[in-house]
Amino acid sequence: MVVATTIPTNGVDVSYRWVAGDPCALVFSGGTPFAAVVIEPEGDRVAAIYSVTNPDKLTGIRR
């Protein structure tokens, strides 16, 4: 399993989108996908938070 252990030194940009019907924050570093954070809602509460930082799984994400 690959997990991001540090924040990129050149900073990050965040873009908000919907992924599979759930709200998602896409984090980019230098134009390259760094992480995807998906919030799974349950009514007006958060049921789960999922984070993907594996670069191999982020290759399909475009800015």
What is the strand and helix layout of this fold?
Layout: E1 13-19, E2 22-29, E3 32-42, E4 45-52
Antiparallel strand pairs: 1-2, 2-3, 3-4
Your description of this structure?
By secondary structure, this protein is an all-beta fold. It has a domain at 13-54. The protein is built from no helices and four strands. A four-stranded antiparallel beta sheet has the order 1-2-3-4, with no helix packed on it. The N and C termini lie far apart (24 Å).
For the structure shown, list the relevant keywords.
63 residues, 4 strands, 0% helix
Unreliable stretches covering 5 or more consecutive residues: none
Which band does the percent of strand residues land in?
over 45%
Termini separation (Å)?
A: 24 Å
Order of helices and strands: EEEE
How would you write the strand order of the largest sheet? 1-2-3-4
Number of discrete helical segments: 0
Structural class by secondary-structure content: mainly beta
Give the % helix. Answer: under 10%
User: What is the arithmetic mean of pLDDT?
Assistant: 85
Give the strand tally: 4
The rounded Rg comes to 12 Å
State the gist of this model.
The chain has no helices and four strands. It is mainly beta.
